[in-house]
């Protein structure tokens, strides 16, 4: 019985070993995989076998080689299988599914970590300098990453680990540059880092991301991708225009009450309906829950003020002012939550990590700029609620402010404002999550359009009519016990 053979068998200059491999081939127990490499796997494709054993093969065939240039920063092959290794000589080798580029260069130093199977990987400082080396492009694939990609990676390092990480990287590069004969590349690297840290002119930067940081407006690139997805969807498909259905002062006043009531209920500030009515209309503040009561009162104060809700934002500064001033009014009694001030601490909800504090202003700016190009108020309203919700610029109260800012886009155009009733809470939150986590904007658009239609069909002319219509729509029910029924579905 043959001893079980390893999947990868390397050729050898030893005559006995070579004869053994020949015997195994004659018995159809092994086959040639690539030059000097055999396999006992007679089932899987060459590409699958090479991919599974790639580093072991390279380490055996090219001992001491360094995973370098773009391969070091990317941590492996490109999407189409190109790998760059610094070695003793220059050569290009094609394996099944992979192209190996051997590049002559300095051997590994004590700064370059062991990788696997006798291979090394360039240190971070060395890898960045390698990617900034002057090189002529002789094929469609280059050994270096694009300049903007390098800058974006440096910006990411700064975002995640802070400015000290860039300074440390620069110091390490300085210590290695002479030994590696990479002084020119080091000079490029230090100019980029200095510009990102705003100690030199940003004319040395190519990436919009790093230029924004150098100008004091760093932003979250992943959020910008989500905003772009939502923008494209809103820009490409016209949405229906639904005019405001509340025409009397009393109808608008009651609409604002229920908007405030439900918006706070969504966030866990729960009052019985009559109790909330007394808080808002009779200023009866429960002794046991004064802060919660003021949340409802503050929300109502903002959304019931037509002058406030009809203010325009002609530039980002006025937008930021309205965002913060409205938050100040809503959260006025929660002094521990820094009302009116952007967050100073990182916040999250479940598995969702929101924008980092130092990226809040820049991310809001990029989102606001994108929103201005949308064709109509309803598109801007949908974009706005996601923008504020996704950035989460405040320590608390972000959901209420997101919905206030949404309706503030509709109000100046006399379009129907939107209430998210209790029964529709999960639909709304899941729709936000579908875009945030799954890059799908459709559920959010559909959910808000349905909520807008619902809001337009309730008669807010007087208290009894409003309560009756909301009750028949299941608006006060919990989302796991009922579903939203539009009045038009009852007729």
If you had to describe this structure to a student in words, what would you say it looks like?
- With 491 residues, this protein is an alpha+beta fold.
- Among the domains are: 147-214, no CATH class; 221-490, Orthogonal Bundle (Fic-like fold).
- It contains 22 helices and ten strands.
- The protein has helices at residues 15-26, 46-52, 54-61, 69-74, 124-131, 147-161, 163-180, 183-196, 208-214, 221-236, 249-266, 273-282, 290-303, 306-309, 316-330, 360-371, 377-391, 398-410, 425-438, 442-457, 463-472, 487-490, and strands at 8-10, 31-34, 37-39, 66-67, 82-87, 91-95, 98-104, 120-121, 348-349, 352-353.
- The strands form three sheets. It has a five-stranded mixed beta sheet with strand order 6-7-5-4-8. A three-stranded antiparallel beta sheet has the order 1-3-2, with helices on both faces. The protein has a two-stranded antiparallel sheet with strand order 9-10.
- It is elongated.
Mean pLDDT: 90
Uncertain residue ranges: none
Number of discrete helical segments:
22
- Order of strands in the sheet with the most strands? 6-7-5-4-8
- Considering DSSP H and I runs of 4 or more, what fraction of the residues is helical? 40-55%
Estimated structural class: alpha+beta
Based on Cα principal axes, name the global outline: elongated
> What is the CATH fold-level name of the domain at 221-490?
Fic-like fold
Beta-strand fraction estimate:
5-15%
- CATH class label of the domain at 221-490: Mainly Alpha
Biggest sheet: strands, sense, closure?
A: 5 strands, mixed
State the distance separating the first and last CA atoms. Answer: 82 Å
* Rounded Rg: 31 Å
Q: CATH-wise, what's the superfamily of the domain at 221-490?
A: Fido-like domain
| Corresponding CATH architecture of the domain at 221-490 | Orthogonal Bundle
- Let me know the number of strands: 10
């Amino acid at each position: 019985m043959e001893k079980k053979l390893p999947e990868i068998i390397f050729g050898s200059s030893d005559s006995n070993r070579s004869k053994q491999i020949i015997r195994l081939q004659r018995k159809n127990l092994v086959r040639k995989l690539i030059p000097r490499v055999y396999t006992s796997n007679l089932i899987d494709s060459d590409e699958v076998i090479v991919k599974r054993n790639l580093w072991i093969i390279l380490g055996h065939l090219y001992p001491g080689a360094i995973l370098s240039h773009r391969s070091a920063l990317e941590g492996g092959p490109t999407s189409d299988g190109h790998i760059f290794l610094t070695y003793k000589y220059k050569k290009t080798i094609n394996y099944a599914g992979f192209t190996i580029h051997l590049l002559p260069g300095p051997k590994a130093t004590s700064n370059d970590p062991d990788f696997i199977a006798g291979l090394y990987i360039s240190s971070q400082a060395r890898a960045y300098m390698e990617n900034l080396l002057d090189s002529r492009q002789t094929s469609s694939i280059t050994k270096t990453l694009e300049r903007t990609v390098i800058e974006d990676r440096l910006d990411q390092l700064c975002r995640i680990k802070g400015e000290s990480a860039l300074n440390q990287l620069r110091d390490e590069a300085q210590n290695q540059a002479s030994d590696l004969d990479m002084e020119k590349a080091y000079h490029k690297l230090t100019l980029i880092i200095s510009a990102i840290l705003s100690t030199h002119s940003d004319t040395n930067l190519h990436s919009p991301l790093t230029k924004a940081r150098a100008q004091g407006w760093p932003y979250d690139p992943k959020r910008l991708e989500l905003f772009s997805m939502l923008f494209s969807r809103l820009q490409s498909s016209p949405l229906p225009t639904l005019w405001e259905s509340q025409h009397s002062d009393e109808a608008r006043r009651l609409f604002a009450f229920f908007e405030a009531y439900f918006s706070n209920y969504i966030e866990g500030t729960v009052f019985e309906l009559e109790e909330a009515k007394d808080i808002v209309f009779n200023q009866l503040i429960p002794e046991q829950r004064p802060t919660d009561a003021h949340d409802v009162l503050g929300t109502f104060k903002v959304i019931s003020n037509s002058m406030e809700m009809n203010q325009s934002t002609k530039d980002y500064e006025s937008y930021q002012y309205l965002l913060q001033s409205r938050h100040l009014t809503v959260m006025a009694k929660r002094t521990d939550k820094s009302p009116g001030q952007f967050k100073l601490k990182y916040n999250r909800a479940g598995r969702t990590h929101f924008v980092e504090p130092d990226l809040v202003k820049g991310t809001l700016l990029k989102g606001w700029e994108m929103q201005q190009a949308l064709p109509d108020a309803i598109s801007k309203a949908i974009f706005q609620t996601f923008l504020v919700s996704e950035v989460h610029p405040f320590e608390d109260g972000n959901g209420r402010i997101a919905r206030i800012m949404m309706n503030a886009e509709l109000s100046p155009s006399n379009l129907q404002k939107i209430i998210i009733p209790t029964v529709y809470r999960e639909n709304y939150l899941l729709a936000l999550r579908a875009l945030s986590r799954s890059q799908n904007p459709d559920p959010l658009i559909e959910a808000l359009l349905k909520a807008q239609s619902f809001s337009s069909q309730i008669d807010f002319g007087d208290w009894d009519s409003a309560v009756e219509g909301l009750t028949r729509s299941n608006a006060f029910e919990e989302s796991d016990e009922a579903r939203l029924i539009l009045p038009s579905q009852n007729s």
